[in-house]
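Quick one: sequence plus flavin-adenine dinucleotide SMILES, need structure tokens.
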Amino acid sequence: MKILVCISNVPDTTSKINFTGDNKEFDKNGVQFVINPWDEYALTRAIELKEAKGGNVTVLNVGEADAEPNIRKALAIGADDAIRVNAHPKDAFFVAQQIAAVAKEGGYDMILMGKESIDYNGSQVHGMVGELLGIPSVVPAFKLDMVNDNTARLEREIEGGKEVVEVQLPFVASAQQPMSEPRIPNMRGIMTARTKPLKVVEPVGNEAKTAYTSFSKPEKKGGVRMIDAENAGELITLLRNEAKVL
Amino acid sequence: MSVLVLVEGFNGEIKKSSLEAASYGSQVAQTLGTTATALAIGEVHDDALAKLGEQGISRVLYDNDPRLNNFVTEAYVKVIAKAAAQENSKVIIFSNTNIGAAVGARLAVRLNGSLATNVTQLPQINGSSFTVTRGVFSGKAFADVELTSDVKIIAVKKNSIEITSQGGTATVEKFSAELTDADFAAAPKETVMQDTDGGVLLPEAEIVVSGGRGLKGPENWHLIEELAKELGAATACSKPVADIGWRPHHEHVGQTGITVSPNLYIAIGISGAIQHLAGVNSSKVIVVINKDPEAPFFKAADYGIVGDALEVVPKLIEAAKALDK
Ligand SMILES: Cc1cc2nc3c(=O)[nH]c(=O)nc-3n(C[C@H](O)[C@H](O)[C@H](O)COP(=O)(O)OP(=O)(O)OC[C@H]3O[C@@H](n4cnc5c(N)ncnc54)[C@H](O)[C@@H]3O)c2cc1C
Ligand SMILES: Cc1cc2nc3c(=O)[nH]c(=O)nc-3n(C[C@H](O)[C@H](O)[C@H](O)COP(=O)(O)OP(=O)(O)OC[C@H]3O[C@@H](n4cnc5c(N)ncnc54)[C@H](O)[C@@H]3O)c2cc1C
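Reply:
Sure thing.
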């Protein structure tokens, strides 16, 4: 089975978010980048499936060379090879186009992604790739198993419940927990990752459908009003009369 | 052309998040000098449909194909695309639900349109430029994004748009996309709804009562549940609480869980790690109850109580019971 896992390269979850150049650009200064946490669920599940059934796991990133340490990390966790589409990803559609082109070329059985990229919070690349390739997209899934060589069974979240779906290969799915337990690379993984193939390819097309014009930050909170634990009940009165939320 | 709004039903009623989308859609229509049409799918009562007039919707297209009562991505995309073609809609509005996200992206590609999800404000429209504001970096920032294609698809973040009520009645028209069995090939084998015990769905909730590791164990969760019941709230938890199995995973909020933006979020025995805040920081009012006065969550709070949850929460339940509702 050939599995393609798409990873985005995002600011560490603890990063302070700032903007430069008249609030037109994200300030990368001092920011640590990590594999998008949701994508780790997809990556580990892909590796588990490969371990159980045999096959190959390719990781794919659409991004510039500064994403390579995290691509190597994905190889250290257990992917077999990697592809980087050498481009500044302009928006979700641009990224989806690149992923679809790589997927078409590689003939993958399954394309796994994260539920959402935690930088631009779009939650849309998976659906776009599914549509571009004309194959089903199952989002967001928290369970993925093979029923037989051609069919996968997934559980996806809907508001207030879940759906169990069976789809024929190939398909796209996005992962959320508890699909798998993300792994930390071990020493052997880190050593072998250095020599695993990482292919750099040039982008197809240059089309974006949106233009980011500026950024802003939410207003700061006015400060916290403390209530004595002895009179905890007063909180409820304040929530009704002052905050007017009850 | 009219602005098209997708509305989702739940137990025969229209979801609150869809009423927000309808309010958004009709305001956009007004700015563009046109009308707003809603497309309803699934089981919704007729009077609930007509009442969308209150949100400024003039017509409701209703596809009551029972096969659509379950969510099936391909079938939904087809119905919406057909309605958009019939109405010649250039602006399509969803709510940012799991359904909205799943169909919005496919629809954007099919209609060659621009898609913006997680949108928090009405658009700025200047001549041919159409710009929306959306939440990015997990609640830590907003971005202004211009939608440059002819067709614009917008998924509105929950609880960020006021529900308008202008008191009108919408006309309800039958609509059929004439779907075939092939459109339902990926229909779910099974749909399991959570037993909310008549309670409130977390993603739709206006009030959320959430517990962390400070609650000490699942045996103390009745406190969270009782307070939630008194306030008409949904319950939630921090990630470690779901990981150790005190609570189900679908209750876990935060960076790697679900994002909530209720009017009131009450955090009990939760330290306020940045990854937890990422899922709750757009809540309008935040209350923190923690025995440690140095807990980082207090920095993000509007109201705080330093104390032992096991002693404080019973007092809150008592006070909530005394409220006239
Ligand atoms: C203004 C702007 C500036 C940007 N600057 C940078 C930058 O400096 N460096 C950089 O690396 N990226 C940059 N990006 C790209 C960004 O990280 C995302 O890849 C892209 O915007 C898609 O975001 P989304 O939130 O819509 O993705 P979602 O739809 O939320 O992503 C869903 C899933 O798609 C997959 N996916 C998403 N993006 C990629 C990708 N790029 N490669 C492979 N798989 C992916 C992942 O599995 C992810 O979990 C920028 C984007 C914008 C809009
Ligand atoms: C990549 C990544 C993603 C993550 N995603 C998420 C996420 O989505 N959601 C999430 O929640 N976390 C997430 N985390 C974990 C996060 O960093 C914290 O570890 C977690 O939120 C802590 O949960 P907690 O506050 O319940 O527990 P703790 O940090 O153990 O805090 C317990 C709190 O309870 C207080 N307390 C103890 N006893 C009492 C008492 N009797 N009465 C009142 N207060 C009491 C303590 O003072 C303390 O502040 C993520 C971490 C990483 C690295």
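Chain A touches chain B through 78 residues (CB under 8 Å). The mean pLDDT of chain A is 95.
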